Amino acid sequence: xxxxxxxxxxxxxxxxxxxxxxxxxxxxxxxxxxxxxxxxxxxxxxxxxxxxxxxxxxxxxxxxxxxxxxxxxxxxxxxxxxxxxxxxxxxxxxxxxxxxxxxxxxxxxxxxxxxxxxxxxxxxxxxxxxxxxxxxxxxxxxxxxxxxxxxxxxxxxxxxxxxxxxxxxxxxxxxxxxxxxxxxxxxxxxxxxxxxxxxxxxxxxxxxxxxxxxxxxxxxxxxxxxxxxxxxxxxxxxxxxxxxxxxxxxxxxxxxxxxxxxxxxxxxxxxxxxxxxxxxxxxxxxxxxxxx
Length: 292
Fold this sequence. Notes:
Layout: H1 2-12, H2 18-60, H3 64-93, H4 98-111, H5 117-131, E1 140-145, E2 148-158, E3 162-167, E4 172-176, E5 183-185, E6 191-200, H6 205-222, E7 231-238, E8 242-251, H7 256-274, H8 288-291
Antiparallel strand pairs: 1-2, 1-5, 2-3, 3-4, 6-8, 7-8
Membrane topology: Multi-pass membrane protein
Subcellular location: Cell membrane
Family: Belongs to the MscS (TC 1.A.23) family.
């Protein structure tokens, strides 16, 4: 019984002393100072990193999308390092041996190694994505996993563990890097617009092609996304009431579909302006005798 009283008194006695609360308050204030300092340091380092890459781009005319990707990577690494230093410093202020934790982490790491395989896989895949330049921030990509498309859109950010993709309909998809299988990048090579334009079979095709070529000469200067003037490839098909003209155009990466929409709009305006006829449906005469 006396031993129990002694233990309880040894636990309660420090709580009755003012020095205990003063020490605790000082430690809490120090923790807050470390956290605020870490936030300020990370903010300053992020700006320094951004400025360093801006200067590099101006001097070497580097790839801006590639720079955004590397900026994101370096900032993430710096953030992890700063917080690791802050946390270990705080623990040491409370008398906790950081070396002992690190040594224990090695033993525990062996025990949970199988459970952490997914995280390790995500990080390793993230390094390969970044350093193999599979895609950059701002690229339009399609990600498949197991033969199924899991995300398609513009890359918002690339981290060591996950990648954020804005889909064409506005959703933000966050994918673990290790879950990515086949990656299709639409922003590396130039795009191609393929458009089929139907024209009335009664039209003079030489005249139509001449007017189209005049139009296409002006499109390249009017729209930035065309790498070269659209070209009339020829006749795709001839039906009872229409002729289908095939048009192709080279665009900047990822803008093939947008180029096709522009061509259709401009061709429609041309046909209205030049009174070029579009195909009309053919109505067969109604014969009651054949029906009977």
